[in-house]
Amino acid sequence: MQDSVRSVDRALQVLELLAGGPMRLSDLARQAGLPVSTTHRLLVTMEQRGFVQAEPDSAMWAVGRQAFAVGAAFSSRHSFLAPAILSLRRLRDATRETANLGTILSGEVSIVAQAESREITRAIAAPGARTPVVLSAMGKAIIATWPEEAVDALVERHGFRAMTARSIRDIDSLKAELAIVRQRGFAVDDEEFVSGIRCVAAVVRDPTGEPNCAISVSGQAARLPEAKLPQVAAQVMEHAADLSRRLQLLA
Fold it and tell me: What is the CATH number of domain 78-248?
């Protein structure tokens, strides 16, 4: 039984990695911390059930149709996604950058909806991709609404993962930044998760009135210089507030 549970956990881990985009077997095994043979066996099993699919021309593995069907069940239970997508498209058109909707799952921010920028070069973390909460503008926007003890519990459980030279590395720095987020109403990922990428986010209250999600704009730092952040932040906050108002009508 224990081996079966371990196999399920490993399969889900592989599926979560593929949510970020197609990957080669060797890269997938390395990121999952599994032997190539084990990873291949898991992929073949999930392929038989339609959760992943092989792309022979590129030797890549990708999420399959059945995974989309399961994900659609989440969408059907969360009626806020339809109005959120409309807001994301409007925000994308206003800023010309990729707009995202995210929520916190197991100590990470997961993108649940997105409107891609139409620019040739754009910042995209595909829906389903995850980012450590403290390195995500959306994550910081959400936890800035939490009581201090909840933030402490999050950090105690998940810690800090330094991804770039700008990553937050300690609780004091995090709390200082959250205080700024509360004061100005928006959060920034200033190349903290990926070098060269900036994000600006504001919290959104879901149909129950809880601040469980956020929207953001993400783009290349060269197109989102610090001097432009207040302008972009104002647009993000405007769309977040409008979406929050419309979602209350669904409650």
Answer: 3.30.450.40
